[in-house]
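Please predict the structure of the following assembly.
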Amino acid sequence: QKEVEQNSGPLSVPEGAIASLNCTYSDRGSQSFFWYRQYSGKSPELIMSIYSNGDKEDGRFTAQLNKASQYVSLLIRDSQPSDSATYLCAVFQGAQKLVFGQGTRLTINP
Amino acid sequence: GAVVSQHPSWVICKSGTSVKIECRSLDFQATTMFWYRQFPKQSLMLMATSNEGSKATYEQGVEKDKFLINHASLTLSTLTVTSAHPEDSSFYICSAPGQFGGYEQYFGPGTRLTVT
């Protein structure tokens, strides 16, 4: 079982709709969770962090965390073509390092 | 957040030569920096943790004699790929932790290495 798992996609969403990205992790002791956005040929950019169960909203982005289910998600409301990118889920684990999922490629169709 | 720069942004070298990549934290002093490698269509793989004033901590399977890391100061870490081979061609990205003690990391723009 991979430490951090994401559906690689591609996930296609029409412009204006909600994009839902999911991530599961194996280390039950993990406490810190992050979502990064990576455009093709560029380095990852931090867009959300979440540490407590529940929802955290920042603009059009909402991160959701359920530690009991070891599940993290990212919702993007009113999706725009500029949101087309690969989204990486990252989990900070007890070994003091950030472990990344393989990323979900998201395409927003105009 | 943190602002991290890398130099060069891309480099082409011949097989057998060495290449040095610099990573700088521009707005705060980072005692720890991280080096990642990313192959096309794959996720980031942590190579090593760079520690100011002490030896780097390498991940399993990463050759420490091939990938030399030096954390020369609180704002500069360097990665030297020694005796590069075509299979070392990749996107190398460094990161620094948030300056306020959180566990998030902020990435530099990356260096694309091509070994011919």
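Chain B has a mean pLDDT of 93. The first strand of chain B starts at residue 4 and ends at 7.
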